[in-house]
């Protein structure tokens, strides 16, 4: 993410975290439309994290139960099917910034939230992740709760972050150190 985006991300997120909906804040920045914008932005951030994190890159393996024809290809019964979600989540023509972390991938020109069809970290179809609803709710609640309580600070002596994932059935980040500072109550 470039510096300009990091700054915007920080400002919008910080505003939302300091003055959440219902906090009664009357500051002009905390008007309802502004807060709605922040909520939209935080949703865009969570979706972009999921897109880039690409948690289950090859989904769950499937198998054809009968001879199948797909886009001109014949797939015999009993063929193992491996979905490439990594490819979909950075598919050319689907994302404004497919190779960078940028919440704008989920915002239109008016700043409204949009979810491109290619956003499928939970896969798609009849066998789509059964826990999608629960996972999405948890992601939102945990992220907002943690960010409201703590500041997450990259330690000065930690060097550049290494974003190379640890490969397995799921992709996980390499272990890293993070300084957590309790936010002062507003
Ligand atoms: C961010 C979190 C999660 C991600 C990215 C994720 C992703 C996935 C993916 C890609 C699949 C394979 C779908 C397919 O076969 O095409 C799957 C299946 C599944 N997931 Fe999740 N999942 C998440 C959280 C959860 C949670 C919290 C639960 C349960 C509480 C859950 C329960 C399941 C189940 C039961 C299936 C198998 C569905 C089936 O085969 O019919 N998942 N998940």
Automatic annotation (TrEMBL):
Keyword field: Heme, Iron, Metal-binding, Monooxygenase, Oxidoreductase, Signal
Known InterPro entries for this protein? Cyt_P450, Cyt_P450_CS, Cyt_P450_E_grp-I, Cyt_P450_sf, Cytochrome_P450_fam2
The source's superkingdom equals Eukaryota
Which is a Gene Ontology cellular component entry for this protein? cytoplasm
Q: Where does heme bind?
A: 129
Keyword presence, Metal-binding:
yes
The protein's GO terms of the molecular function aspect are: heme binding; iron ion binding; oxidoreductase activity, acting on paired donors, with incorporation or reduction of molecular oxygen, reduced flavin or flavoprotein as one donor, and incorporation of one atom of oxygen
Q: Which residues form the signal peptide?
A: 1-24
Q: Which cofactor does it need?
A: heme
One Pfam family assigned to this protein is: p450
One of its GO biological process terms is: xenobiotic metabolic process
UniProt similarity note: Belongs to the cytochrome P450 family.
Instruction: Please give the PANTHER family that the UniProt record associates with this protein.
Output: CYTOCHROME P450 2F2-RELATED (PTHR24300:SF327), CYTOCHROME P450 508A4-RELATED (PTHR24300)
Report what the protein is called: Cytochrome P450, family 2, subfamily X, polypeptide 9
Which species? Answer: Oreochromis niloticus (Nile tilapia)
């Amino acid at each position: 993410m470039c510096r300009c985006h990091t700054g915007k991300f920080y400002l919008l997120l910080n505003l939302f975290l300091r003055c959440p909906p219902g906090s009664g804040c009357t500051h002009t920045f905390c008007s309802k439309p502004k807060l709605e914008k922040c909520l939209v932005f935080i949703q865009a951030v969570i979706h972009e994290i999921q897109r880039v994190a690409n948690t289950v890159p090859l989904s769950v393996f499937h198998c054809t139960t009968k001879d199948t024809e797909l886009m001109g290809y014949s797939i015999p019964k009993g063929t193992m099917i491996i979905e490439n979600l990594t490819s979909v989540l950075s598919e050319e023509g689907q994302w404004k910034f497919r190779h960078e972390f940028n919440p704008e991938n989920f915002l239109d020109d008016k700043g409204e939230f949009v979810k491109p069809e290619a956003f499928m970290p939970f896969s798609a179809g009849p066998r789509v992740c059964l826990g999608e609803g629960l996972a999405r709710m948890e992601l939102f609640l945990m992220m907002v709760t943690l960010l409201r309580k703590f500041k997450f600070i990259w330690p000065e002596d930690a060097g550049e972050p290494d974003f190379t994932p640890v490969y397995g059935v799921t992709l996980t980040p390499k272990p890293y150190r993070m300084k957590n500072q309790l936010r002062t109550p507003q």
